[in-house]
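Limitations
The structure tokens in this dataset are predictions for the assembled complex, not deposited experimental models. Users should treat interface geometry with appropriate caution, especially where small molecules or nucleic acid strands are included. An illustrative entry is reproduced here so readers can see what is and is not provided.
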Amino acid sequence: MSEHAQYEQTGAFEPKIMAFVCNWCTYAGADLAGTSRLEYRPNVRIIKLPCTGRIDPLFIIKAFENGADGVLVSGCHPGDCHYTTGNYHARRRWIAFKSLMEFTGIDMRRLHFSWVSASEAIKWVDLINGITEEVKILGPFVEYKGLKGEENG
Amino acid sequence: MARIGVFVCQCGNNIEGTVDTKKVAEEAQKLPGVVYSRNYKFMCSSPGQEMLKEAIKKHRLDGVLVSACSPHMHEKTFRKASDAAGLNPFRCEMANIREQCSWVHHDRTKKTGTVKGNDLTRMAIERLKRNRPLKKINIPVTRRALVIGGGIAGIQAALDIAEGGREVILVEREPSIGGNMARLSETFPTMDCSQCILTPKMVEVELNEKIKLYAYSEVEKVDGYIGNFTVRIRRKAKYVDEDLCTGCGECIEKCPFKAGSEFELGLTSRKVIYTPFPQSVPNIPVIDAPNCPKFQKDKCGACAVVCGPKAIDFKQKDTVVEEKVGAVVVATGYQMMPNERFGEYGYGRFKDVISGMQFERLASSSGPTGGEIRRPSDGKVPETVVFIQCVGSRDEAKGVSYCSKVCCMYTAKHTMLFRHKVKSGQAYVFYMDIRAGGKRYEEFVRKAIEKDGAMYLRGRVSRVYEKDGKVVVCGADTLSNSQVEIEADMVVLATAVVSRKGSDGLARTIGIGSDRHGFYNEYHPKLKPVETVNAGIYLAGACMGPMDIPESVNMGSAAAGKVLGLFSSEEMAREPIVANVNERVCNACWDCVVACPYSAIERFTVKNGQGDVMGMHAKVNEGVCQGCGVCVAACRSKAIDLAGYTDEQVFAAINAF
Ligand SMILES: Cc1cc2nc3c(=O)[nH]c(=O)nc-3n(C[C@H](O)[C@H](O)[C@H](O)COP(=O)(O)OP(=O)(O)OC[C@H]3O[C@@H](n4cnc5c(N)ncnc54)[C@H](O)[C@@H]3O)c2cc1C
Ligand code: FES
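Predicted assembly:
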């Protein structure tokens, strides 16, 4: 919906990034970026989950379908997961899922996996700026949006 | 149709500065299901909360979205307010337009912030529409505690819990409680005798009716969850009937055989039927069967002959008891780094190179020398003693990166004890730096140096060798930049404090984590120092890392406080963010069972009235589930969902992107 608004804003293509993050580390890290009054690109929309282990690969596909040009999955560093091993599950799932994504035609530069702790506000800022920049160069991701159109129509 | 109310907070100028909150409220109003929407200066203030409550009632809202700061900040506030107005608290959600929007996008024209604020609010509203009302889960609490380990930390925890009126089961592996503190001579920083302050507490444990002591026992299994644990305890055969034994000690007296004393760290021997030390609690001896001829060759049996009450029972077997408890305190303490790892200092090869703990025994009036400092090789009183600090500690090559924390203090104590007992003696200390943080600690070390004349040499020891009945220590004195060589009569090593052998096994048994050194992990290093990831299981003392007596006692009391808090009512309420299984869809593949980090999912067998097996499905134990949702993503047939984070809710948010 806000895609147009974003075009209007800068006149150029502004990618939409969806971030799936865990409640305990990355969400808190993103909060810290705010409390520290850091600034970063406004292209990201966060969806909070208890743990990266909760993230279903389908979420990512759905995000692309719904207009995301890039997706980020981020949680606690290995060993720091609030639920001890949730992020290991996420990582394992990620490895299996990655090749599948490549196979289905998603450019892997659109999909990022990272660890951002509750204290790594700067890392969060750099990550979002970096992904936005990278996806901006790649241009809009239209393939999956088409899919949704077909489904609806 | 839903009846959602939207409240967009200006947060003074914190949000309003870069987000047009009025616009956000107007945009939200256009969404289907939103019946009320407005902005306000400070939603979290009491007028703000009152307004929210009134709107719920007046507009019969069935959902409330507060677009404001981070939910980590005020979710609880608004959920509480909703609850007070009769709205299920889980029908209240927040959109984070401050920390994750207004504060990070500094566009003063408000364009950027408003666009994003709109998006975040819309996504949250769509999610909120799918929020099911949830009820806090009540779990019954068995108000009895298990304490594992009877060192000072475990003793303190047990006494405090009992004092609070709750029953305690104290399990100690050795024949007596007391732990390492029972070995100490005098204690820093006050120099009171360890036994004098410890023994009364040990006796208190024995006399307290609320404490059931299982000495010479080990915990084999812990099942269940907070409030509802079942523990299996193995009571090792003592070959002495506890009910009959009067603790007269006749058997020990008459036993003709000896073995090395564990309590005295090999400095002397004990009888084969023994108590670790004279003030043992319980004061009931055990027979060391592997060293007893009665067991090995069916010879002797003198103890049985002299025992008046006929308490000796060579046929006694281990027994296993099961106890139900609501909380567990782990207080299994520490040990010293084994001596074979200090070849370079001659420990284990040269008789007169001993550990700090052995020195405690030499200095103890109940020790093998009756408190006189006599060296092990020939019993001579040493005139020159070299103390070496950081032996193993802070040494990655030895696998110990950390500081053992107590050694600076006890080495200073040792030099004083030595000087007090051997007036003409001279103590030398090789150290890296002195760490004496703590009340009266720095002063204590200064006293050792200034009043009792200990010679502190800053530097490492390069070599230790024996020569003509002396132990020669060569090392650097980096402060005077010279090499020193000291001909000592005895050398005392401040060996590293390490985790107990087998500590990782116990961690697995009880389901808690340990670090790479085998010390148990607290839930949070600052804010939850006595809790563990396994709710209802707490830590106390040096099993969590090196610490001194005051800290161990602190932790023991803190853990007891947590336990008593938990036991303050018969039921405990917990957040309803738990997984649940759709039994009809579950195809019993058990992927979830394997994935669950908490073993919260069981393989459930469905039976009919006749007891025939009708089928199987996964079943979540709500008491154990922590709500991570790993099982949900692992389930291939989509039979599990996570309350509060259902697929439906997440997809709704994505769709509104
Ligand atoms: C040489 C030396 C001198 C010291 N001097 C001082 C001093 O002067 N002042 C001071 O404040 N501190 C001193 N300390 C530190 C002090 O010893 C510790 O702070 C204290 O003993 C820690 O108590 P704890 O109960 O945590 O552990 P521990 O004393 O180790 O007790 C743990 C208990 O748990 C039992 N246990 C272990 N595993 C199991 C199991 N699986 N099942 C059941 N039971 C189990 C053990 O048998 C033991 O009884 C000194 C330490 C050393 C090494
Ligand atoms: S809680 Fe952050 S990844 Fe598991």
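Some entries come with short summary sentences. For this one: Chain A has a mean pLDDT of 87.
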